[in-house]
Amino acid sequence: MSDQDLIKLYSQRILALAADIPHAGRLEAPDASARRRSPLCGSTVTVDVVVKDGHIADFAQDVKACALGQASASVLGSVAIGRTRAEIERARDELRAMLKENGPVPSAPFDGLEVLLPAREYKNRHASILLALEATAEAMEAAEKARCA
User: Fold this and answer.
1) DSSP letter (8 states) at residue 24
2) What whole-number distance in Å separates Cα of residue 38 and Cα of residue 131?
3) Pairwise CA distance, residues 56 & 71, whole Å
4) Packing angle, helices 85-100 and 126-148, rounded to 10
5) pLDDT computed for residue 25 by the predictor
6) What pTM was estimated for this model as a whole?
7) Average pLDDT along the chain
8) How high is the pLDDT of residue 122?
9) Average pLDDT in the 29-36 region?
10) Residue 29 neighbours by CB under 8 Å, 6+ apart
């Protein structure tokens, strides 16, 4: 990877998002939590959710990831409250397709993930970028199962 590639990949917008992640931390009494880790780079994201009527009512995330993973978590954090599991799963699947299959940018309200388009070329970063959405989908599924138990 050349210096120019790194500059393009870690654009100022990505770094600004990474520096200001909404809902950083943990919840005191979540309905469910999920932790996802990328074995390739060691990035981890832990998500806590409170779900009411099928929507995220409260959300927190503990993000230990590269700037790209942090930027992805930042975009998610800015729109997570009020989302359903189906919306989170759709965003996860659309982001995966954008990165791995040259698919379109995820649909609103997750279209801010467009900032990660340059990461398509860096397959070793894809897992870290997907962690926050994967953990959120997993936490929502766990919350639903706990409610039904």
Assistant:
1) B
2) 7
3) 20
4) 160
5) 98
6) 0.93
7) 93
8) 87
9) 98
10) 50
